[in-house]
Recover the amino acids of this structure.
């Protein structure tokens, strides 16, 4: 079930957690992209610039701002992904894409170009919480 | 005060199907040879803890080599290898392992291989059970499609990072950060070999329909697989073991695809159990 309190404060919390993360600060100098997280109940567009979260759009309209790739899964998969010890196959974007209902769409080259930092950033969902 | 490891490194040169291979290996211990194969695109440091574990090395001569083109083992010295696309085949891989055993004059070795080494373990069980005293297939299965990808060498992306972060999810979130980071680091060194290795792993290796030919009578076979392995999930290894008369399968909890490297204390218990099973069956 959706935690409304987490959902509403999530953009600020995820921004804070990411922008204070030592690993992203150490390796994110060229981490520039815009991506969408489709969590079934809500969609979040994250704009990264020089390794920092510049902007997060909640439920953006279809033409609000272009993005390069998206990661889509059911709310249940995202909720499991966000646990400290997720069950097997929900523990990573590759794992959940190969074995669960997660999908990677859009320009996957941009995803691959930023894979190190993006992978780290997704794991920070276990710190900020998942907003669905 | 400096500390010296009991592990020693050495080179050996031998022929593999006409290829002159200068191979680097680490070893420690005394007893029955225990031959350790690293995973695709990696090298023998994945076995760093096993090599220094006195409970193991007091009973086994642990030998961990770098497969040709990995770590400190260069590509074949007598070939213009840079003019060819690297694709590892079952035939070459199997000739390499048996050639290494011959070169070191190993008697009754146990072969332990992980991932593409786990798949090779099954090939050895099929083709050369007479050469080994036992076989441990770690994260292995009869068929493992889906990872022979061009992303590992795409010139528009950082191949080191794509390779290393591409396999990150193969490890369990419970494994220690330091050992997951070390495994990531090893993978950042092997992108060029990784894709060619995965030709064997995902394409050339296919034992579907042939498992019944594997004879474990004189060469016990144990399969162990981590529950967080999304490439070869436990059910795939279990399916494989069920197709081989006499094979034993054990699922490893709270660990992933690089068990000896990502969380040795958890791996060790299962690995000792596998060695004990082989000893009992021998």
């Amino acid at each position: 079930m959706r935690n409304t309190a987490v959902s509403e404060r999530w953009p600020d919390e995820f921004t804070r957690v990411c922008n204070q993360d030592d690993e992203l600060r150490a390796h994110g100098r060229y981490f520039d992209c815009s991506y969408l997280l489709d969590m079934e109940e809500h969609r979040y567009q994250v704009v990264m610039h020089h390794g920092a979260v510049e902007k997060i759009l909640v439920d953006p309209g279809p033409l609000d701002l272009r993005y390069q790739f998206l990661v889509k899964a059911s709310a249940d998969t995202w909720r499991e992904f966000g646990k400290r010890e997720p069950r097997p196959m929900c523990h990573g974007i590759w794992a959940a894409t190969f074995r669960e209902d997660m999908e990677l769409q859009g320009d996957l080259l941009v995803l691959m170009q930023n894979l190190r930092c993006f992978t780290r950033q997704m794991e920070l969902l276990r710190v900020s919480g998942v907003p669905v | 005060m400096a500390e010296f490891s009991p592990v020693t490194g050495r080179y050996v040169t031998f022929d593999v199907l006409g290829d002159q291979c200068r191979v680097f290996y680490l070893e420690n211990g005394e007893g029955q040879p225990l031959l350790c194969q690293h995973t695709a695109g990696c090298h023998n440091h994945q076995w760093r803890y096993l090599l220094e574990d006195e409970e193991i090395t007091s009973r086994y001569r642990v030998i961990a080599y770098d497969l040709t083109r990995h770590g400190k083992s260069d590509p074949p010295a007598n070939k213009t290898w840079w003019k060819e696309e690297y694709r590892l085949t079952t035939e070459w891989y199997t000739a390499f392992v048996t050639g290494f055993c011959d070169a070191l004059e190993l008697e009754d070795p146990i072969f332990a291989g992980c991932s593409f080494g786990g798949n090779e373990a099954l090939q050895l069980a099929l083709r050369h059970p007479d050469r080994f005293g036992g076989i441990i297939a770690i994260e292995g299965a009869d068929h493992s499609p889906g990872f022979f990808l061009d992303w590992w060498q795409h010139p528009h992306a950082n191949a080191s990072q794509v390779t290393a972060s591409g396999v990150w999810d193969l490890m369990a979130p419970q494994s220690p950060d330091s050992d997951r980071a070390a495994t990531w680091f090893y993978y950042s060194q092997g992108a060029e070999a990784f894709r060619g290795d995965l030709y064997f792993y995902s394409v050339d290796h296919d034992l579907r329909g042939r498992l019944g030919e594997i004879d474990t009578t004189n060469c016990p076979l144990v399969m162990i697989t981590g529950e967080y392995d999304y490439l070869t999930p436990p059910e795939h290894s279990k399916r494989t073991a069920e197709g081989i008369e006499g094979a034993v399968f054990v699922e490893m909890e709270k660990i992933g695809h690089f068990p000896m490297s990502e969380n040795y204390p958890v791996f060790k218990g299962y690995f000792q159990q596998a060695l004990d099973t082989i000893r009992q069956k021998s």
